[in-house]
Amino acid sequence: SNFFLLKILKYISINNSLPLEENSIPFYNNTFKQPNIFILLKYILKEYSFALKYKIFSKFNFKEMWSVSFLKSSDLNINMKKAITIINPQNRFLADPFVIKHKNRNICFVEDYYYNEKKGKISAYELFENSYVELGIVLEEDFHLSFPFVFKDGDNIYMIPETSKNKDIRLYKCTDFPLQWEFEKTLINNVDAVDTLVFENNSKWYMLTNVCSSSIGDHNSELYIYESDKLISDKWIPFDSNPLIFDTLRSRNAGLFKLNGNYY
Question: 2: part of which helix (H) or strand (E)?
Answer without folding.
Answer: helix 2-15
